[in-house]
Amino acid sequence: MYDTLRRITGIALAGATLLLSAYGGMVGTATRAEAGMCYDLWYQRNAIFAQRGYCFKGCGRRVWGKNCFPPYGELTGYQWSRVKQIQARERALGCPSCPQSWQ
Residue 23: helix, strand or coil by DSSP? Predict the structure, then answer.
């Protein structure tokens, strides 16, 4: 029974190690468990800009391309409010400025 438990535990630890190494590419000051949430928040925030035709540079361009069209990223008051809420959550988690998807 002890050997079976040790084998199961070893398999679980090996799987956890693989998962943590996958998260490692996008961790700034965020914990590894928060890394997926950081990407989700980054995506939500930038999706707002994408809907408004923002001309992406850097890591946003990998997801949305250049994406330029009028009104070129000009946001409504509600959209700015939502972006600020998301940014506050990103700061609270210590998210990197350009997270990588771990999938």
Answer: helix
